[in-house]
Amino acid sequence: MENKEILTPQCIVEGDDTYDLVYDKSHIMTETRLHYCPGCGHSTAHKILAEVIQEMGIQDNVVGVAPVGCSVFAYDYLHIDWQEAAHGRATAVATGIKRCLPDRYVFTYQGDGDLAAIGTGETIHCVNRGENIVIIFINNGVYGMTSGQMAPTSLAGMKTTTSPYGRDVHTMGYPIKVSELIAPLPGAFYVTRQAVHTPNAVRKAKKAIENGFKYQKLGKGTSFIEIISNCPSNWKMTPVQTNEFIETDMIKYYPLGDVKVPSKEDLKELK
Amino acid sequence: MEQNEDIRLMKGNEAMAEAAIQAGMDAYFGYPITPQSEVLEYLTREMPSRNFLALQAESEVASINMVYGAAGAGARVMTSSSSPGWSLMQEGVSYIASAQLPCLLVNVNRGGPGLGTIQPSQGDYFQATKGGGHGDYRLIVLAPNSVQEMADFVFLGFELADKYRNPVLMLSDGAIGQMMERVIFRNREIKKIAKPWATTGKTKDRERNIITSLFIQPEKMEKVNLELMKKYEEIEKNEKRYEEIFTDDADYIIVAYGLSARISHKVVLLAREKGIKVGLLRPITLWPYPSEVLNKLADKAKGMFVVELNAGQMIEDVRLAVNGKVRVEHYGRMGGIIPSPEEVEEHFEKFIKTL
Question: What is the ipTM of this complex?
Answer without folding.
Answer: 0.96
